[in-house]
Design a protein that fits this description.
The chain is mainly α. It has 11 helices and 2 strands, in the order H-H-H-H-H-H-H-H-H-E-E-H-H. The protein has a two-stranded antiparallel sheet.
């Protein structure tokens, strides 16, 4: 039963990854937290595995977005590098915290993002003027995005999409940039979790690489390839306002899943 659940959710996360730029973390973390055996590192395992899946989902989504010229490359660098640095910090901090504390941080932060998106009219209705980040903000937001995303296993879009909307980008471009900026989080975070998990000597078994649960990683990554092209197709068929509202609804559904 769990195998077929992973297949279904793998396709779903692929679709949502290319549509909303988060690599699947909003869905995968609550899913794995619910279906995997609970122990003192249950939340960390869900987050570590989510980051691993995010590598393939985000990379394939970036490939599809680039074919449609949806990535604004001048907004990618140098914030890309600072996100990678922040990812190391977030992954390290998570391994020091109890699983229950990480879960509560996940819940509180999701509530904050949902309320912020609902409160600001500019999120649902795109601003007419596109502005850029200052050099100092590249550093601040890069470290914040990387550490938060790696800590919670949700990719950078939980911050980058609201940020890109504030800068005046369409949801289509914001999601494409969100996927691109999720790559350093996923790559660095997954490596750190795998390394630190081995250092903790948890004796989880051969199915784990550190804190990464390999069977779920494989199934979710492979089925994500099916969903990504579907999501890329849907992005071009919905309005910007519907796209933005869908992002908020997705956050709410994910929050509900982790609460239940």
């Amino acid at each position: 039963m769990e195998f077929f659940t992973l297949i279904a959710f793998g396709v779903l996360t692929g679709i949502l990854s290319s549509m909303f730029g988060f690599g699947g973390g909003f869905i995968i973390v609550p899913l794995l937290y619910r279906i995997l055996p609970h122990n003192s590192y249950s939340m960390q395992i869900a987050i570590a595995t989510s980051l691993g899946v995010m590598i393939t989902n985000s990379a394939f989504s970036v490939y599809n977005a680039q074919k449609n010229n949806s990535i604004i490359w001048k907004l990618i660098f140098p914030i890309f590098y600072y996100i990678g640095c922040g990812s190391v910090i977030g992954a390290f901090v998570t391994t020091l915290l109890p699983s229950s504390v990480v879960r509560y941080i996940f819940i509180v932060y999701m509530l904050f993002v949902i309320m912020n998106c609902v409160r600001k009219k500019s999120f649902v209705k795109k601003e007419d003027k596109v502005i850029s980040l200052s050099k100092n903000r590249h550093v601040v937001f890069g470290l914040l995005i990387g550490s938060t995303a790696s800590l919670l296993g949700v990719g950078g879009s939980i911050i980058t999409i609201p940020l890109m909307r504030k800068l005046g980008l369409s949801m289509k471009h914001a999601a494409a940039i969100g996927n691109m900026l999720s790559l350093p989080v996923a790559l660095v975070g997954a490596i750190v979790y795998a390394f630190l998990g081995n250092k903790l000597n948890l004796e989880l078994g051969n199915a784990y690489l550190g804190l990464v649960y390999l069977p779920a990683l494989f199934v979710l990554s492979m089925t994500g390839f099916i969903g990504v092209p579907i999501g890329s197709y849907l992005v071009n068929k919905i309005s910007d306002k519907t796209h933005a509202i869908g992002f908020i609804l997705l956050l709410f559904i994910s929050l509900t899943a982790i609460l239940v």
